[in-house]
Amino acid sequence: MIGLGENVDVHVRELPVSYLKTQKIIGELWYTLNPKQFAVHLGLARGSSVVILEQTGKNTGYRDRDVCGYCPETRCCVEGGAQKLESVINMRAVSKHFRQAGMNVVYSRDA
Predict the structure, then answer these.
(1) Can you tell me the mean pLDDT for 44-65?
(2) pTM, whole model, 2 decimals?
(3) Signal peptide span per the entry (predicted)?
């Protein structure tokens, strides 16, 4: 639908909303699947009626507790990680394709 071609493997995993567990699982998935071009991580906000495609991921400012009741004291998701990660994928263009297909998708630069 968005021009990626036929040789695309899609792996879907539902992850717990847990800072520590998710970080471990993502690391294992990257090691096991070894994506050749890219990976897309999707998150859903409770009560949201739209899919938000983020262009930029942030590493700081976390204040909410996860499902285990944990929140990093430093408010940093990945200690020592980059402050921001910019997707190499043009999420504005991707969101446009999904909207044209009738899906409720929003583009954002502020995760």
Answers:
(1) 87
(2) 0.70
(3) none
